[in-house]
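#struct-queue
[09:14] JT: dropping the first one here, sequence first, then the C-alpha coordinates:
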Amino acid sequence: MPHPTLQSKRPPSFPGNHPWALGVFAKEPCPGLVKTRLTPPLSPEAAAYVYECSLGETVSNMAAAPWDCVLFYSGAESYFRQNFPGLPCAPQSPGDLGTRLDHALATLLAAGYQAAALIGSDSPDLPREMITNAFLSLSAASAVTIPARDGGYVLIGEGQHYPVLFRDIPWSSSNVMAVTRNRAEQSGVVLHEIGLWEDFDDAMSLKRLLARSPHSATARLVLRDYVHLLDRETTLPDRAISVAGEDRPTD
Protein backbone atom coordinates (compact mmCIF):
# COMPACT_ATOMS: atom_id res chain seq x y z
CA MET A 1 0.00 0.00 0.00
CA PRO A 2 1.32 3.50 -0.78
CA HIS A 3 2.25 5.47 2.29
CA PRO A 4 -0.90 7.53 3.13
CA THR A 5 0.84 10.86 3.76
CA LEU A 6 2.35 10.83 0.28
CA GLN A 7 -0.58 9.69 -1.85
CA SER A 8 -1.99 13.16 -2.39
CA LYS A 9 1.30 14.87 -3.23
CA ARG A 10 2.05 15.74 -6.83
CA PRO A 11 5.25 14.10 -8.01
CA PRO A 12 7.98 16.73 -7.52
CA SER A 13 10.56 17.51 -10.13
CA PHE A 14 14.23 16.87 -9.55
CA PRO A 15 15.29 19.38 -8.42
CA GLY A 16 12.03 20.75 -7.01
CA ASN A 17 11.00 24.05 -5.51
CA HIS A 18 13.43 24.29 -2.61
CA PRO A 19 17.11 25.28 -2.44
CA TRP A 20 17.88 22.36 -0.12
CA ALA A 21 17.68 18.63 -0.82
CA LEU A 22 17.59 15.88 1.78
CA GLY A 23 18.45 12.41 0.52
CA VAL A 24 17.15 9.44 2.50
CA PHE A 25 19.13 6.23 2.17
CA ALA A 26 16.72 3.30 2.20
CA LYS A 27 16.70 -0.46 1.73
CA GLU A 28 13.88 -2.65 0.57
CA PRO A 29 12.68 -4.24 3.85
CA CYS A 30 13.42 -7.88 3.05
CA PRO A 31 13.63 -10.30 6.02
CA GLY A 32 17.18 -11.36 6.65
CA LEU A 33 18.65 -8.42 4.73
CA VAL A 34 17.79 -5.48 7.00
CA LYS A 35 18.44 -4.90 10.71
CA THR A 36 20.13 -8.24 11.14
CA ARG A 37 21.63 -7.15 14.48
CA LEU A 38 18.09 -7.13 15.88
CA THR A 39 17.87 -10.88 15.30
CA PRO A 40 17.66 -12.09 17.98
CA PRO A 41 15.66 -11.05 19.95
CA LEU A 42 13.41 -10.33 16.95
CA SER A 43 12.80 -12.72 14.08
CA PRO A 44 14.04 -11.64 10.63
CA GLU A 45 10.42 -10.93 9.63
CA ALA A 46 9.81 -8.80 12.70
CA ALA A 47 13.06 -6.88 12.23
CA ALA A 48 12.10 -6.15 8.62
CA TYR A 49 8.63 -5.01 9.70
CA VAL A 50 10.08 -2.64 12.31
CA TYR A 51 12.49 -1.26 9.72
CA GLU A 52 9.67 -0.80 7.20
CA CYS A 53 7.73 1.22 9.77
CA SER A 54 10.82 3.32 10.49
CA LEU A 55 11.33 3.93 6.78
CA GLY A 56 7.73 5.07 6.34
CA GLU A 57 7.87 7.30 9.40
CA THR A 58 11.16 8.85 8.32
CA VAL A 59 9.92 9.62 4.82
CA SER A 60 6.62 11.03 6.10
CA ASN A 61 8.41 13.37 8.50
CA MET A 62 11.02 14.52 6.02
CA ALA A 63 8.73 14.91 3.00
CA ALA A 64 6.63 17.40 4.98
CA ALA A 65 9.60 19.67 5.69
CA PRO A 66 10.84 22.78 3.80
CA TRP A 67 13.29 20.96 1.55
CA ASP A 68 13.06 18.47 -1.31
CA CYS A 69 13.18 14.86 -0.15
CA VAL A 70 14.78 12.26 -2.43
CA LEU A 71 14.96 8.51 -1.82
CA PHE A 72 18.23 6.77 -2.63
CA TYR A 73 17.20 3.14 -2.59
CA SER A 74 18.76 -0.29 -2.50
CA GLY A 75 16.53 -3.14 -3.67
CA ALA A 76 13.61 -3.32 -6.07
CA GLU A 77 12.67 0.02 -7.57
CA SER A 78 9.06 -1.16 -7.78
CA TYR A 79 8.80 -1.34 -3.98
CA PHE A 80 9.73 2.33 -3.57
CA ARG A 81 7.64 3.54 -6.53
CA GLN A 82 4.62 1.71 -5.17
CA ASN A 83 4.96 2.75 -1.54
CA PHE A 84 6.23 6.32 -2.01
CA PRO A 85 4.70 7.42 -5.32
CA GLY A 86 5.09 11.14 -4.67
CA LEU A 87 8.83 11.11 -4.13
CA PRO A 88 11.71 11.15 -6.61
CA CYS A 89 13.77 7.98 -6.31
CA ALA A 90 17.27 7.14 -7.47
CA PRO A 91 19.21 3.90 -7.03
CA GLN A 92 22.22 3.91 -4.77
CA SER A 93 25.42 3.53 -6.71
CA PRO A 94 27.49 0.33 -6.51
CA GLY A 95 30.33 0.25 -4.03
CA ASP A 96 30.89 0.65 -0.32
CA LEU A 97 28.99 3.13 1.84
CA GLY A 98 31.48 5.90 1.18
CA THR A 99 31.14 5.51 -2.58
CA ARG A 100 27.35 5.56 -2.31
CA LEU A 101 27.28 8.64 -0.07
CA ASP A 102 29.78 10.39 -2.33
CA HIS A 103 27.70 9.66 -5.43
CA ALA A 104 24.38 10.68 -3.85
CA LEU A 105 25.63 14.06 -2.61
CA ALA A 106 27.38 14.77 -5.91
CA THR A 107 24.13 13.94 -7.74
CA LEU A 108 22.03 16.32 -5.64
CA LEU A 109 24.50 19.20 -5.84
CA ALA A 110 24.95 18.70 -9.59
CA ALA A 111 21.17 18.94 -9.94
CA GLY A 112 21.35 22.56 -8.83
CA TYR A 113 20.59 22.51 -5.10
CA GLN A 114 22.35 25.10 -2.97
CA ALA A 115 22.90 22.50 -0.23
CA ALA A 116 22.33 18.78 0.13
CA ALA A 117 22.36 16.37 3.04
CA LEU A 118 21.88 12.65 3.55
CA ILE A 119 20.30 10.66 6.37
CA GLY A 120 19.44 7.02 6.91
CA SER A 121 15.99 5.56 7.43
CA ASP A 122 16.56 4.16 10.92
CA SER A 123 16.40 7.39 12.96
CA PRO A 124 12.63 7.91 12.69
CA ASP A 125 12.54 10.51 15.47
CA LEU A 126 15.40 12.66 14.15
CA PRO A 127 14.13 16.21 14.76
CA ARG A 128 13.51 18.28 11.65
CA GLU A 129 14.70 21.34 13.59
CA MET A 130 18.11 19.73 13.93
CA ILE A 131 18.25 19.14 10.17
CA THR A 132 17.19 22.74 9.52
CA ASN A 133 20.02 23.93 11.75
CA ALA A 134 22.41 21.70 9.85
CA PHE A 135 21.39 23.24 6.53
CA LEU A 136 21.60 26.77 7.98
CA SER A 137 25.09 26.09 9.29
CA LEU A 138 26.29 25.57 5.71
CA SER A 139 26.20 29.33 5.22
CA ALA A 140 29.37 29.44 7.35
CA ALA A 141 30.72 25.89 6.96
CA SER A 142 31.86 23.71 4.09
CA ALA A 143 30.18 20.60 5.46
CA VAL A 144 28.04 19.55 8.40
CA THR A 145 27.29 16.41 10.36
CA ILE A 146 24.95 15.33 13.12
CA PRO A 147 27.16 12.95 15.09
CA ALA A 148 25.77 9.63 16.29
CA ARG A 149 26.07 8.09 19.70
CA ASP A 150 27.86 5.05 18.25
CA GLY A 151 30.73 7.11 16.79
CA GLY A 152 29.31 7.60 13.31
CA TYR A 153 26.89 10.24 12.09
CA VAL A 154 23.18 10.31 11.31
CA LEU A 155 23.48 13.18 8.81
CA ILE A 156 26.14 14.60 6.55
CA GLY A 157 25.62 17.63 4.35
CA GLU A 158 27.53 19.95 2.02
CA GLY A 159 27.16 23.19 0.14
CA GLN A 160 29.68 22.00 -2.41
CA HIS A 161 31.04 18.53 -2.82
CA TYR A 162 34.12 17.22 -1.01
CA PRO A 163 34.78 13.60 -2.07
CA VAL A 164 37.70 13.42 0.35
CA LEU A 165 35.23 13.11 3.23
CA PHE A 166 34.15 9.68 1.97
CA ARG A 167 37.43 8.04 1.02
CA ASP A 168 39.15 5.45 3.20
CA ILE A 169 36.73 5.83 6.10
CA PRO A 170 36.35 2.82 8.45
CA TRP A 171 32.64 2.39 7.83
CA SER A 172 30.57 0.44 10.37
CA SER A 173 33.04 1.26 13.12
CA SER A 174 33.03 3.58 16.11
CA ASN A 175 35.72 5.73 14.44
CA VAL A 176 33.70 7.09 11.50
CA MET A 177 33.07 10.53 12.99
CA ALA A 178 36.57 10.89 14.39
CA VAL A 179 38.21 9.97 11.09
CA THR A 180 35.83 12.23 9.15
CA ARG A 181 36.61 15.08 11.52
CA ASN A 182 40.34 14.58 11.06
CA ARG A 183 40.00 14.24 7.30
CA ALA A 184 38.11 17.53 7.12
CA GLU A 185 40.75 19.30 9.19
CA GLN A 186 43.60 17.92 7.10
CA SER A 187 41.83 18.93 3.86
CA GLY A 188 40.86 22.44 4.91
CA VAL A 189 37.15 21.59 4.96
CA VAL A 190 35.29 23.60 7.61
CA LEU A 191 33.09 21.00 9.29
CA HIS A 192 30.30 21.96 11.69
CA GLU A 193 28.73 19.44 14.05
CA ILE A 194 25.12 19.82 15.17
CA GLY A 195 24.04 18.08 18.35
CA LEU A 196 24.01 14.32 18.85
CA TRP A 197 21.46 11.69 17.83
CA GLU A 198 21.16 7.96 17.29
CA ASP A 199 19.85 5.35 14.88
CA PHE A 200 18.76 1.88 15.95
CA ASP A 201 20.82 -1.14 14.96
CA ASP A 202 20.45 -3.53 17.88
CA ALA A 203 18.15 -4.25 20.81
CA MET A 204 19.75 -1.69 23.12
CA SER A 205 19.57 1.19 20.65
CA LEU A 206 15.99 0.22 19.82
CA LYS A 207 15.15 0.39 23.52
CA ARG A 208 16.67 3.84 23.70
CA LEU A 209 14.33 4.88 20.86
CA LEU A 210 11.41 3.59 22.95
CA ALA A 211 12.60 5.63 25.93
CA ARG A 212 13.38 8.75 23.93
CA SER A 213 10.33 8.86 21.65
CA PRO A 214 7.74 6.33 22.87
CA HIS A 215 4.97 8.02 20.87
CA SER A 216 6.74 7.71 17.52
CA ALA A 217 5.06 5.32 15.08
CA THR A 218 8.04 2.97 15.12
CA ALA A 219 8.21 2.88 18.91
CA ARG A 220 4.49 2.27 19.20
CA LEU A 221 4.73 -0.65 16.78
CA VAL A 222 7.52 -2.21 18.81
CA LEU A 223 5.74 -1.58 22.10
CA ARG A 224 2.51 -3.09 20.76
CA ASP A 225 3.88 -6.19 19.04
CA TYR A 226 7.41 -6.95 20.22
CA VAL A 227 7.92 -5.46 23.67
CA HIS A 228 7.74 -8.91 25.27
CA LEU A 229 10.79 -9.96 23.26
CA LEU A 230 12.82 -6.89 24.13
CA ASP A 231 11.87 -7.09 27.78
CA ARG A 232 13.76 -10.37 28.05
CA GLU A 233 17.01 -8.55 27.38
CA THR A 234 16.82 -5.69 29.90
CA THR A 235 14.17 -3.73 31.76
CA LEU A 236 12.25 -1.22 29.69
CA PRO A 237 12.09 2.43 30.81
CA ASP A 238 8.93 3.59 32.61
CA ARG A 239 7.89 5.95 29.80
CA ALA A 240 7.96 3.13 27.27
CA ILE A 241 6.06 0.79 29.59
CA SER A 242 3.37 3.45 30.00
CA VAL A 243 2.89 3.85 26.25
CA ALA A 244 2.94 0.08 25.78
CA GLY A 245 0.04 -0.13 28.20
CA GLU A 246 -1.89 2.49 26.24
CA ASP A 247 -1.56 0.48 23.04
CA ARG A 248 -2.48 -2.92 24.42
CA PRO A 249 -6.06 -4.04 23.75
CA THR A 250 -8.41 -4.36 26.69
CA ASP A 251 -11.02 -7.03 27.28
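[09:21] JT: and here's the second one, same format:
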Amino acid sequence: MKRFVTRAAAALGLSVAFLATSAPAQQQSPSKKPTTTTKKKGGKKKPKKPVGKPVEMGDLDEPVAAPAPPPGPTGTASTGSTATSSGSASVSASGSASSSAAASPTSDAHDAKSDVEAPGPTPKDDRDARDKRFSAALLVGVGIGNARPCGGGTCNAYGLGFGLRGGYEITHHLYVGGAFVYHLGFSRAIPVGPFTSQQSASVLYFGPELGYNIDAGPIVIRPYLGIGLGILSASVTSGFGANGTAADTSGSGAHFALWPGVTGLYPINQTFFAGADLRFAIVGENALSLFATGGLRF
Protein backbone atom coordinates (compact mmCIF):
# COMPACT_ATOMS: atom_id res chain seq x y z
CA MET A 1 0.00 0.00 0.00
CA LYS A 2 2.78 2.43 0.84
CA ARG A 3 4.52 1.60 -2.42
CA PHE A 4 1.36 2.28 -4.45
CA VAL A 5 0.89 5.67 -2.84
CA THR A 6 4.49 6.55 -3.54
CA ARG A 7 4.15 5.61 -7.22
CA ALA A 8 0.89 7.53 -7.59
CA ALA A 9 2.43 10.66 -6.09
CA ALA A 10 5.41 10.39 -8.41
CA ALA A 11 3.13 9.99 -11.45
CA LEU A 12 1.04 13.01 -10.41
CA GLY A 13 4.20 15.11 -10.01
CA LEU A 14 5.39 14.18 -13.48
CA SER A 15 2.00 15.06 -14.95
CA VAL A 16 2.00 18.49 -13.29
CA ALA A 17 5.56 19.18 -14.44
CA PHE A 18 4.70 18.16 -18.02
CA LEU A 19 1.65 20.42 -18.08
CA ALA A 20 3.66 23.34 -16.66
CA THR A 21 6.35 23.07 -19.33
CA SER A 22 3.98 22.56 -22.30
CA ALA A 23 1.56 25.50 -21.59
CA PRO A 24 4.06 28.43 -22.22
CA ALA A 25 5.35 26.81 -25.37
CA GLN A 26 1.84 26.58 -26.67
CA GLN A 27 1.22 30.29 -25.90
CA GLN A 28 4.51 31.45 -27.58
CA SER A 29 4.06 29.42 -30.75
CA PRO A 30 2.01 31.22 -33.47
CA SER A 31 -1.38 29.82 -33.81
CA LYS A 32 -2.14 28.36 -37.14
CA LYS A 33 -5.51 29.07 -38.63
CA PRO A 34 -7.36 25.93 -39.23
CA THR A 35 -8.28 25.41 -42.77
CA THR A 36 -10.91 23.26 -44.22
CA THR A 37 -10.78 21.72 -47.59
CA THR A 38 -13.46 20.72 -49.97
CA LYS A 39 -13.08 18.11 -52.52
CA LYS A 40 -13.80 19.18 -56.09
CA LYS A 41 -14.76 16.98 -58.89
CA GLY A 42 -11.75 15.32 -60.43
CA GLY A 43 -10.16 14.46 -57.11
CA LYS A 44 -8.50 17.87 -56.42
CA LYS A 45 -9.04 19.59 -53.13
CA LYS A 46 -9.63 23.35 -53.03
CA PRO A 47 -8.63 25.12 -49.82
CA LYS A 48 -11.33 27.19 -48.23
CA LYS A 49 -10.86 30.62 -46.83
CA PRO A 50 -9.25 30.60 -43.41
CA VAL A 51 -11.57 31.11 -40.51
CA GLY A 52 -10.76 34.17 -38.47
CA LYS A 53 -8.88 33.56 -35.32
CA PRO A 54 -10.70 34.16 -32.03
CA VAL A 55 -10.29 37.57 -30.50
CA GLU A 56 -7.80 37.53 -27.68
CA MET A 57 -7.47 39.95 -24.76
CA GLY A 58 -4.39 41.65 -26.26
CA ASP A 59 -6.22 42.43 -29.48
CA LEU A 60 -8.87 44.51 -27.66
CA ASP A 61 -6.26 47.20 -26.89
CA GLU A 62 -5.60 47.93 -30.60
CA PRO A 63 -8.11 50.27 -32.30
CA VAL A 64 -9.92 48.68 -35.16
CA ALA A 65 -11.05 50.91 -38.09
CA ALA A 66 -14.73 50.63 -38.77
CA PRO A 67 -15.42 49.37 -42.30
CA ALA A 68 -17.14 51.79 -44.68
CA PRO A 69 -20.83 51.04 -44.96
CA PRO A 70 -21.84 49.70 -48.36
CA PRO A 71 -23.80 52.09 -50.56
CA GLY A 72 -27.53 51.60 -50.41
CA PRO A 73 -29.52 50.63 -53.48
CA THR A 74 -31.03 54.11 -53.88
CA GLY A 75 -28.11 56.10 -52.34
CA THR A 76 -30.31 57.79 -49.76
CA ALA A 77 -29.33 56.08 -46.53
CA SER A 78 -25.53 55.94 -46.78
CA THR A 79 -22.59 58.21 -46.34
CA GLY A 80 -21.52 57.65 -49.92
CA SER A 81 -24.86 58.94 -51.13
CA THR A 82 -24.39 62.02 -48.97
CA ALA A 83 -20.95 62.63 -50.48
CA THR A 84 -22.42 62.07 -53.93
CA SER A 85 -25.18 64.55 -53.19
CA SER A 86 -22.63 67.05 -51.89
CA GLY A 87 -20.49 66.50 -54.98
CA SER A 88 -23.54 66.98 -57.17
CA ALA A 89 -24.36 70.18 -55.34
CA SER A 90 -20.75 71.34 -55.68
CA VAL A 91 -20.75 70.49 -59.38
CA SER A 92 -24.07 72.28 -59.79
CA ALA A 93 -22.79 75.33 -57.92
CA SER A 94 -19.53 75.26 -59.88
CA GLY A 95 -21.46 74.89 -63.11
CA SER A 96 -23.68 77.80 -62.21
CA ALA A 97 -20.65 79.90 -61.27
CA SER A 98 -18.90 78.85 -64.46
CA SER A 99 -21.93 79.70 -66.56
CA SER A 100 -22.20 83.05 -64.79
CA ALA A 101 -18.48 83.67 -65.32
CA ALA A 102 -18.82 82.61 -68.95
CA ALA A 103 -21.78 84.92 -69.39
CA SER A 104 -19.97 87.83 -67.79
CA PRO A 105 -17.41 88.44 -70.59
CA THR A 106 -20.22 88.29 -73.13
CA SER A 107 -22.14 90.87 -71.14
CA ASP A 108 -19.04 93.05 -70.85
CA ALA A 109 -18.40 92.72 -74.57
CA HIS A 110 -22.02 93.68 -75.25
CA ASP A 111 -21.68 96.73 -73.00
CA ALA A 112 -18.43 97.69 -74.73
CA LYS A 113 -20.17 97.29 -78.08
CA SER A 114 -23.00 99.49 -76.86
CA ASP A 115 -20.45 102.13 -75.86
CA VAL A 116 -18.85 101.96 -79.28
CA GLU A 117 -22.23 102.29 -80.98
CA ALA A 118 -23.26 105.22 -78.78
CA PRO A 119 -24.82 108.22 -80.55
CA GLY A 120 -22.45 110.66 -82.17
CA PRO A 121 -21.24 113.88 -80.56
CA THR A 122 -23.37 116.96 -80.26
CA PRO A 123 -22.91 119.80 -82.77
CA LYS A 124 -20.65 121.68 -80.38
CA ASP A 125 -18.27 118.75 -80.15
CA ASP A 126 -18.42 117.27 -83.64
CA ARG A 127 -15.58 119.51 -84.81
CA ASP A 128 -13.17 117.12 -83.13
CA ALA A 129 -15.02 114.02 -84.31
CA ARG A 130 -15.05 115.13 -87.96
CA ASP A 131 -11.62 116.75 -87.69
CA LYS A 132 -12.84 119.78 -89.69
CA ARG A 133 -10.67 122.37 -88.00
CA PHE A 134 -10.20 124.84 -90.84
CA SER A 135 -12.81 127.53 -91.44
CA ALA A 136 -13.44 130.36 -93.90
CA ALA A 137 -16.11 133.04 -93.51
CA LEU A 138 -17.48 136.19 -95.13
CA LEU A 139 -18.19 139.36 -93.11
CA VAL A 140 -20.76 142.00 -94.12
CA GLY A 141 -21.69 144.89 -91.82
CA VAL A 142 -21.37 148.52 -90.91
CA GLY A 143 -19.31 150.69 -88.62
CA ILE A 144 -21.22 152.91 -86.22
CA GLY A 145 -20.21 155.50 -83.68
CA ASN A 146 -17.85 157.43 -85.98
CA ALA A 147 -20.40 159.46 -87.90
CA ARG A 148 -20.04 163.24 -87.84
CA PRO A 149 -22.21 165.91 -89.45
CA CYS A 150 -21.01 167.30 -92.75
CA GLY A 151 -22.83 169.23 -95.54
CA GLY A 152 -26.21 168.82 -94.01
CA GLY A 153 -25.68 165.08 -93.53
CA THR A 154 -23.31 162.68 -91.82
CA CYS A 155 -19.90 161.45 -92.81
CA ASN A 156 -18.66 158.08 -91.52
CA ALA A 157 -15.30 156.76 -92.67
CA TYR A 158 -16.28 153.25 -91.54
CA GLY A 159 -19.69 153.10 -93.21
CA LEU A 160 -20.62 149.92 -95.07
CA GLY A 161 -17.95 147.23 -94.80
CA PHE A 162 -17.15 143.70 -95.81
CA GLY A 163 -14.33 141.32 -95.12
CA LEU A 164 -12.90 137.81 -95.13
CA ARG A 165 -11.81 135.67 -92.24
CA GLY A 166 -9.99 132.33 -92.12
CA GLY A 167 -8.60 130.28 -89.27
CA TYR A 168 -7.66 127.01 -87.72
CA GLU A 169 -8.76 125.46 -84.40
CA ILE A 170 -5.61 124.14 -82.74
CA THR A 171 -7.71 122.50 -80.03
CA HIS A 172 -11.40 122.38 -79.30
CA HIS A 173 -11.10 125.82 -77.69
CA LEU A 174 -8.02 127.57 -79.10
CA TYR A 175 -8.46 129.38 -82.42
CA VAL A 176 -5.87 131.21 -84.56
CA GLY A 177 -6.58 132.95 -87.81
CA GLY A 178 -6.57 136.21 -89.69
CA ALA A 179 -8.99 138.81 -91.08
CA PHE A 180 -9.16 141.46 -93.76
CA VAL A 181 -11.83 144.19 -93.48
CA TYR A 182 -12.55 147.12 -95.79
CA HIS A 183 -15.06 149.90 -95.02
CA LEU A 184 -16.28 151.83 -98.05
CA GLY A 185 -16.70 154.92 -95.90
CA PHE A 186 -18.46 157.86 -97.56
CA SER A 187 -18.25 160.23 -100.52
CA ARG A 188 -20.21 163.45 -100.34
CA ALA A 189 -20.39 166.83 -102.13
CA ILE A 190 -20.35 169.62 -99.63
CA PRO A 191 -21.17 173.22 -100.73
CA VAL A 192 -18.74 175.79 -99.38
CA GLY A 193 -20.08 179.26 -100.30
CA PRO A 194 -19.91 179.62 -104.05
CA PHE A 195 -17.73 176.56 -104.30
CA THR A 196 -18.34 172.81 -104.02
CA SER A 197 -16.10 170.45 -102.07
CA GLN A 198 -16.17 166.73 -102.75
CA GLN A 199 -15.03 164.74 -99.75
CA SER A 200 -14.52 161.00 -99.29
CA ALA A 201 -12.91 158.67 -96.75
CA SER A 202 -12.46 154.91 -96.23
CA VAL A 203 -10.75 152.51 -93.83
CA LEU A 204 -9.19 149.10 -94.21
CA TYR A 205 -7.27 146.91 -91.77
CA PHE A 206 -5.90 143.37 -91.67
CA GLY A 207 -3.89 141.15 -89.41
CA PRO A 208 -3.87 137.96 -87.31
CA GLU A 209 -6.51 137.03 -84.74
CA LEU A 210 -6.38 134.85 -81.63
CA GLY A 211 -9.60 133.54 -80.09
CA TYR A 212 -11.00 131.13 -77.52
CA ASN A 213 -14.12 129.03 -78.18
CA ILE A 214 -16.74 128.77 -75.43
CA ASP A 215 -19.55 126.25 -75.87
CA ALA A 216 -23.05 127.55 -75.09
CA GLY A 217 -25.33 124.73 -76.15
CA PRO A 218 -25.16 124.41 -79.94
CA ILE A 219 -23.74 127.96 -80.21
CA VAL A 220 -20.02 128.67 -80.02
CA ILE A 221 -19.05 132.03 -78.53
CA ARG A 222 -15.54 133.17 -79.42
CA PRO A 223 -13.94 136.22 -77.77
CA TYR A 224 -10.93 137.25 -79.82
CA LEU A 225 -8.28 139.93 -80.33
CA GLY A 226 -6.97 141.16 -83.68
CA ILE A 227 -3.83 143.19 -84.18
CA GLY A 228 -2.27 144.46 -87.39
CA LEU A 229 -2.03 147.32 -89.85
CA GLY A 230 -4.75 149.87 -90.77
CA ILE A 231 -4.93 152.45 -93.56
CA LEU A 232 -7.15 155.55 -93.38
CA SER A 233 -7.68 157.29 -96.71
CA ALA A 234 -9.27 160.73 -97.27
CA SER A 235 -9.79 162.93 -100.30
CA VAL A 236 -11.05 166.52 -100.80
CA THR A 237 -11.77 168.04 -104.21
CA SER A 238 -12.81 171.68 -104.39
CA GLY A 239 -14.23 173.58 -107.43
CA PHE A 240 -13.81 177.32 -107.99
CA GLY A 241 -16.98 178.40 -109.68
CA ALA A 242 -17.43 179.26 -113.35
CA ASN A 243 -13.83 179.18 -114.48
CA GLY A 244 -13.77 175.45 -113.61
CA THR A 245 -10.52 175.50 -111.71
CA ALA A 246 -10.29 172.91 -108.95
CA ALA A 247 -7.99 171.89 -106.15
CA ASP A 248 -7.62 168.22 -105.31
CA THR A 249 -6.21 167.21 -101.95
CA SER A 250 -5.98 163.57 -101.04
CA GLY A 251 -3.94 161.47 -98.75
CA SER A 252 -3.74 158.26 -96.78
CA GLY A 253 -1.90 157.18 -93.69
CA ALA A 254 -0.88 153.86 -92.16
CA HIS A 255 -1.87 153.31 -88.58
CA PHE A 256 -1.48 150.67 -85.94
CA ALA A 257 -4.74 148.67 -85.89
CA LEU A 258 -6.32 146.89 -82.96
CA TRP A 259 -9.76 145.27 -82.92
CA PRO A 260 -11.00 143.29 -79.92
CA GLY A 261 -14.36 141.61 -80.41
CA VAL A 262 -16.64 138.61 -79.94
CA THR A 263 -18.20 136.23 -82.47
CA GLY A 264 -21.18 133.93 -82.04
CA LEU A 265 -21.45 130.96 -84.43
CA TYR A 266 -24.32 128.52 -84.99
CA PRO A 267 -23.67 125.25 -86.91
CA ILE A 268 -26.30 124.85 -89.63
CA ASN A 269 -24.95 121.36 -90.39
CA GLN A 270 -21.60 119.59 -90.24
CA THR A 271 -20.11 121.95 -92.85
CA PHE A 272 -21.85 125.34 -92.86
CA PHE A 273 -22.34 127.85 -90.06
CA ALA A 274 -23.73 131.36 -89.59
CA GLY A 275 -23.45 133.98 -86.87
CA ALA A 276 -22.73 137.55 -85.86
CA ASP A 277 -19.61 139.53 -85.01
CA LEU A 278 -19.23 142.61 -82.80
CA ARG A 279 -15.92 144.48 -82.56
CA PHE A 280 -14.39 147.78 -81.60
CA ALA A 281 -11.86 148.88 -84.24
CA ILE A 282 -9.10 151.34 -83.54
CA VAL A 283 -7.53 152.51 -86.83
CA GLY A 284 -6.65 156.20 -86.58
CA GLU A 285 -10.32 156.76 -85.75
CA ASN A 286 -12.37 154.55 -83.44
CA ALA A 287 -15.60 152.86 -84.36
CA LEU A 288 -17.91 150.09 -83.17
CA SER A 289 -18.67 147.66 -85.98
CA LEU A 290 -21.38 145.00 -86.32
CA PHE A 291 -21.16 142.24 -88.94
CA ALA A 292 -23.18 139.28 -90.10
CA THR A 293 -21.00 136.28 -90.87
CA GLY A 294 -21.33 132.90 -92.53
CA GLY A 295 -18.94 130.28 -93.81
CA LEU A 296 -17.88 126.66 -93.90
CA ARG A 297 -15.57 124.16 -92.20
CA PHE A 298 -13.22 121.85 -94.01
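[09:30] RK: nice, looked through the second one.
[09:31] RK: The helical segments are 2-28, 79-116, 126-130.
[09:31] JT: good to know. Residues 227 and 258 are 5 Å apart (CA to CA).
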